[in-house]
Amino acid sequence: MSDSIDLRNIAIIAFGSRGDIQPYCAIGIELQLAGYNVRVLTNENHRSLVESFGLTHVDTFFDAETCLKTNQRMMKSMASGDTFSFFMGWGDLTAAVAPSAAKRFRDEMVTNRPDLLIVGTLCEFFQLYAMVDLKLPTLRVMLQCIRPSPRAQLGIPTLFGLHNLLLIHAMGPLMVKGGRIYDDAFKSLPGCNGVMSTIDRPKLFEFWIGLNYPVLICKPSLSRPILCPTAESTFKFVGAAVIDKGVERCERSSTSFGGDSTHDMLVEFLNRDDRKPVYMGWGSMICKSPEHMAVLAVDALRKSDKRGIILGGWANLSLEVLDDAETDPGLIKYAKDNVLFVDSAPHEWLFPRVEAIVHHGGAGTTSASLRSGQPTIITPCFLDQFDHAFLVDQLGCGVGFSKQFQKIGSDELADALSKVTTNASYRLAAKSVAEEMYKESGAKAAVEETRKYWINYVKSGSWLNYREELMKRKSDAWKKVALA
User: Where does the Erythromycin biosynthesis protein CIII-like C-terminal domain lie (predicted)?
Assistant: First the structure.
């Protein structure tokens, strides 16, 4: 830290499921190893995960699982793949969490004011508030790069360029609505000022899309020409931010990675048969019902004659759920003989040891699967999961379904499993992709980029200049994006 001795205390804020938060834990670990003091502001239910890595956790948002499962619009979006239902549901969720989150965030900033705030997924307004009202330097670090593209992103149909306009019409009102909700929540706190009155709509959009300041994207550089070919130079792809295998091993006693008992079960199951199993896990996604998912998974394994490790996830998939589905006894017997259900598992450790990986396409799981060197199958539910399915298809290292998970049957999934495990081209491509992925370390790169940002933007005063411009000038950035 010799070049940035005045940067000592860093806060990271991020909202989401475990898969959304774990990359920020990886960054926090590397920052702490580099000598910085790190505090992670996230959902209540991620305390054990964050603390298992020796990081300080600060309750900021409600339990992510409860937030999602009690939001009908977001559950509909997950089940149907409807992107616009997600946007509507996110507005409802913002209204529910804003009063508590605003107070917790403000209290933390007052009590433990950091030198720098790293802003993650779905926390853009906190960056705006920190910059404008608290005059606090911020750096945005994202898991996605949403930019105008010849191919539509987030599951929206590609409509000859009109998809970019459609995306703006969906996200623009969402940003304004969410900003006003949080703004009102902050203004209700003693000594707090609102920021929305100082930022008009075009300026707000310019801030959100991040054209005039560095934004770190925790995706491999090989994904840029496929997913974001027109992304501006301000967006820097630094590689996937993942928990190191060694750290996973050291922390395996933590329930966040399944604990010692789960690890022992995994080792025993892997060694029980010469046939490598297939990993299946959908994390925080729920498609139709837990019973439907359990039957689909085991039936696809049976039809493809594969052993399997199935993650319970938020759907709590288990042998008992399969039994409750009142399916045929033969399927239950197949599961007892060939399938291991686990509540959680260390991806970086497990994925290289399986024959293929089936998952929903979340950012964190996709990174781990691409690094594994094993073929990947993505069954997307919504949003950027469709983009990750497209990425896998384009890289040739697996099968990325273009249809939503709800519309995929066990026959199709079994065919995909047979395809990626019998055609050598998929395994060769998977090995090649993994080699490229391992040349980058998003977490370590984020530390170096943070140091550069502090020197080039904060110490130089450039971030203050941007803050002043943001508050005083109008922008036509929204027009440029809408017409791209």
Answer: 332-440
Q: Which residues does residue 278 pair with via DSSP β-bridges, in sequence order? A: 308, 356
Distance (Å, whole) CA 37 – CA 49: 18
C-alpha 228/C-alpha 152 separation (Å) is 10
Which residue from 176, 163, 177 is spatially nearest to 386, judged by alpha carbons? 163
**Whether the Cβ atoms of residue 218 and residue 23 lie closer than 8 Å to each other:** yes
For 317, the 3-state DSSP assignment is: coil
Helices (H), 342-476: 347-350, 363-372, 385-395, 410-422, 424-437, 442-453, 462-472
Rounded CA separation 264/175 (Å): 46
In whole angstroms, give the CA distance from residue 65 to residue 63.
6
Which domains does the chain carry? 2-241+441-482 (3.40.50.2000), 253-437 (3.40.50.2000)
Predicted TM-score of the model (pTM): 0.89
For residue 14, the one-letter residue type is A
Q: Report the distance separating Cα 232 and Cα 94, nearest Å.
A: 29
Q: Determine contact, residues 287/413, Cβ cutoff 8 Å.
A: no
**Mean pLDDT to the nearest integer, 203-208:** 75
Per residue in 114-147, pLDDT (tens digit) is 999 999 988 999 999 999 999 999 999 999 998 8
Q: Categorize the per-residue pLDDT at 1 as very low, low, confident or very high, splitting at 50, 70 and 90.
A: very low
Residue 484 scores a pLDDT above 50: no
Residue 245 banded pLDDT, cuts 50, 70, 90: low
Do residues 369 and 282 touch, judged by C-beta distance below 8 A? no
Which residues have CB under 8 Å from 169's CB, separation 6+?
A: none
Q: Which amino acid is at 138?
A: T
Q: What is the pLDDT of residue 2?
A: 42
Instruction: Report the candidate in 410, 132, 206, 188 with the shortest Cα–Cα distance to residue 292.
Output: 410
Q: Are 414 and 300 in contact (CB under 8 A)?
A: yes
